[in-house]
Amino acid sequence: MATFIEKADNKTLPMIFTHNIVAFPSVSLSFELDDEKAIAAAEAATGSDSFVFMIKLHEPEEYEEDKRPEPQYYETGTVVKIRQSVKTPDNKLRVVAEGYARAKMLRYYPTGNYLTADVICRTIHLTDSDSIDALAYKHVILRSVADLLRTIPNSNNDLLTAARAIKAPALLADFIASNILFRAVDKQEVLEQFEPVARLETLLTILQEEQEILETESSIQKRVRANMNRNQRDYFLREQLRVIQEELGDRSSDAGSYTQRINELNIKQPAVKEKLLKEADKLAKLPFGSAEASVISAYLDVCLELPWTKKTKDRIDVEAASKILEADHDGLEKVKERILEYLAVRQLNPDLKSTILCLVGPPGVGKTSIAASIARSMKRKYVRVSLGGVRDEADIRGHRKTYIGAMPGRIMTALSQVGVCNPLILLDEIDKLTQDAHGNPASALLEVLDSEQNKTFRDHFVELPFDLSDCVFIATANTLQTVPKPLIDRMEIIEIDSYTKTEKTAIAKHHLIKKQLKRHGLSKTQLHITDGALSELIDYYTHEAGVRNLERAIADLCRKTAAKILAGENAVVIKADDVKSYLGPRKYMPDKADEADTVGQVNGLAYTEYGGSLLKVEVAVMDGTGRVQTTGSLGKVMEESASIAVSYVRTIASKYHIPADFYQKKDIHIHFPEGAVPKDGPSAGVTMVTALVSALSGTPVRQDIAMTGEISLLGKVLPIGGLKEKTMAAYTAGIRQVVIPAENLPDLEEIDPKAREALSFLPCSRIEEVLSHALRPVPEPIVSEHESQKALPEIRIPDLQNDSVIHTI
Questions:
Q1: Is 359 in a helix, a strand, or coil?
Q2: Which terminal residue of the chain, N or C, has fewer Cβ atoms less than 10 Å from its own Cβ?
Q3: Active-site option among 178, 613, 683, 697
Q4: Known catalytic residue: 683?
Q5: Is the dihedral of CA 448, 450, 455, 458 positive or negative?
């Protein structure tokens, strides 16, 4: 059979790539494009001669992972002419085109926002299309198409009629491949045959394979219909699947494989192994495809994925673990000390069960990150379980396996993910648990966090006892107010305070700057942030208990430094004065004490989620009817403290030149500035008493002194919390002396060393001691006429250098 090349042209055309569409010469087709590059290529072709090179992408499964070409284009495609293109509302391009010629791609390259290909178009046809060989191929192919269409339900004979009208065998092959073949890979195989005879032979082979597949399917359906009851449609579907498996020769038993896997697990609990083997035996007796079989199969898969006996070996070298903890985190001494104690005891007693800790502290102080470091120091695997927003008990204990979509709880899922039965499990945000009609997830955690019960923990889905006693549980919370008391009782609470300025500086120098330099591709020689710049960031650009915003500020400096490095600078040194040019004006201004002594204004100290702060209390006294007004977004406890303060001042009014009837003839207004910020707590009691005495007696209050302490109705100064943060706030505000409750003296060991060195602390157990330190001068006590003849009036002025010295005037 003689052939010749009719045309061979080199063209450079925009390239369109598709996934499942193959175009053939002289065959019209319609398709949609959603890729931006393909759409741009089509639009570029429409703007010129409408010719475009259309090529198919390789399917991912056609290549092994390590041998997959990049990019995955076939070499042979089709030059098509775009007849019409319309943009759809969903930003796709609908194209109507007609094949022009086969073409082989020589190379492709980007041109603007689309790809361009250099191709060679080749068209080969028979010199005598009416030869005996050509007619024989044509008749065989048409007969195969007719047989194929008869096995396809609801097939249309119009396609066969159109095929018979085509005289050219080569064109007939393209027409049938385009309209009859199902798989795009088969169409591509026909397209790659430039010679008509080879094309016809390839098409005939594919049609015969399709015919065999359809005949086999038809045979399966006939065999199924012969064995089924016509009124049982579900039975028909199950039988069809069974016959398909028989036809494929797949006779393996799922139950047998499950039994083998159960025996290989080496489960030490006989009851667990017996239960799993029983479920596998039940699965073997069920008919294929039954609903219960899928439930049992899913159940066995979950149970066999659990690490029943697999463990990791702990690191019991206390010194090595201490080095890891110190390298990863600055501060957090209580947490580190507790973990090292646990490791030391494990070294003496290897059978010790794991501990359950709860880290409580404000956001950003490293509660979550320290858990990962603890796992690394102990050589345990680490898995995090987020509990924020969990409201269903089934999230913890799982669902019964009989429910549709049932799954194990988060504890069992975490163990399956980590692959060992003794990991460190972080229960993050345990204070964010909620509850609804589906139950209380906090109650489900009671068994998990009880060292006496969790050795036989039962998940509702697994329904088998699992030993959690080897796991180390670390929970995190911002507050314990929303955590149920029984849950708190099962955990060892470790409170993490907010970081001081010294600690923040150390964390930034040792961790944050290194982390951000690496993230932004900078070296230590390219960016240097001085200690003064860090101090500027901490004092005036962040206001937090942790270091998250400080890390963001350092990242901002790194980004701006990267831009300068690319602009030509070799190195950048950021000093305190340079921060403003990088980050703009200061965002926060630290509280500062007033220089002049003031009547009715006292420097209090408060503890907030951002750390300590200077809380000024102002009292104004006016003629009136004895009304007491408090403002400043005060909570209930603080309102009660104000009432106690007013009542106590009435009991000591005669001692400080305060009219005895002030509560009847004077209106008192107690105000806490920053009214938009909610305030609560009892520790401002002594501050309010001092401000009331000052305002009612007209005595100025020293502004270089700050105070904190709860007041009782009998004038006792009661202990308070947050002394570390409060003293740091006093130090930052320039305070020289701090009045604290005498019972808080032991807490001074935990405050920042700089604050302890710079401040003088005045422990007081009675309010009279507080007033003697704070008022200047102390009002002269009122004495009787008889007593006035015996002694001259005294005014006590506390010495600024030594408050224990009283000067008599």
A1: strand
A2: C
A3: 683
A4: yes
A5: negative
Rounded to an integer, what is the distance from CA 192 to the centroid of its chain? 50
- Report which of 77, 101, 99, 62 is spatially closest to residue 15, judged by C-alpha positions: 77
Planar angle of CA 51, 53, 59, nearest 5 degrees: 150
Give the integer Cα–Cα distance in Å for 148 and 208: 9
Q: Give the other-Cβ count within 10 Å of 509's Cβ.
A: 14
Which tens digit of pLDDT belongs to each residue from 550-593?
Answer: 889 999 999 989 888 888 888 888 888 888 888 888 888 777 77
Q: Are 558 and 527 in contact (CB under 8 A)?
A: yes
pLDDT digits (tens, 9 = 90+) for 265-280: 777 777 887 888 887 7
Instruction: List, in order, residues 6 or more apart from 593 with CB less than 8 Å away.
Output: 603, 614, 703, 704, 706, 733, 734, 735
Alpha carbon of residue 230 to chain centroid: 54
The model's pLDDT over 676-722, given as tens digits with 9 standing for 90+, comes to 778 888 888 999 999 999 988 888 998 889 999 999 989 899 998 88
Residue 726 a catalytic site member? yes
What is the spatial distance between Cα 508 and Cα 497, in angstroms, rounded to a whole number?
Answer: 17
Residue 503 pLDDT exceeds 60: yes
The DSSP element (H or E) to which 346 belongs, if any, is helix 333-348
Q: Which amino acid is at 129?
A: S
The structure's pTM equals 0.58
SS (H, E, C) 547-586: CHHHHHHHHHHHHHHHHHHHCCCCCEEECHHHHHHHHCCC
398: left (phi over 0), alpha (psi -120 to 50) or beta: left
Higher-scoring residue by pLDDT: 375, 776: 375
Q: How far is CA 440 from the centre of its chain?
A: 24
Question: Are 127 and 168 contacting, i.e. CB atoms less than 8 angstroms apart?
Answer: no
Confidence label for 415 from pLDDT (cuts 50, 70 and 90)? confident
Q: What is the dihedral angle through the alpha carbons of 683, 684, 689, 694, rounded to the nearest 10 degrees?
A: 140
Angle of CA points 703, 705, 709, to nearest 5°: 125
Region of 706 on the Ramachandran plot (φ > 0 left; ψ -120 to 50 alpha; else beta) = beta
Integer Cα distance of 195 and 315 in angstroms: 71
- Dmax (CA) of the chain: 150
Cβ–Cβ < 8 Å for 537, 579: yes
Determine the Cα–Cα distance for residues 161 and 533; give it in Å rounded to an integer.
85
What's the residue count for the chain?
809
Reported as type and span, the H/E element at residue 104 is strand 93-111
The tokens of 231 are what? Answer: 């009124």
Q: Which DSSP letter does residue 60 get?
A: G
- Rounded CA-CA distance 774/570 in Å is 56
- What region, left, alpha or beta, does residue 429 occupy, with left being phi > 0 and alpha being psi -120 to 50 degrees? left
Closest CA to 302 of 268, 279, 274, 281: 279
Q: Please say whether the beta carbons of 268 and 310 come within 8 A.
A: no
Residue 63 has pLDDT above 50, yes or no: no
Digit-coded pLDDT (tens) for 279-307: 777 777 776 667 777 788 788 888 888 88
User: In b/e form, how buried is each residue of 123-147, taking b as 16+ CB within 10 angstroms?
Assistant: bbbbeebeeeebeebbeebbebbee
What is d(CA 109, CA 107) in angstroms, rounded to the nearest whole number?
7
Burial group, residue 365, by CB count within 10 angstroms (0-12, 13-18, 19+): buried
- pLDDT confidence of residue 741: 93
> Do the strands 601-608 and 705-707 form a parallel or antiparallel pair, or are they unpaired?
parallel
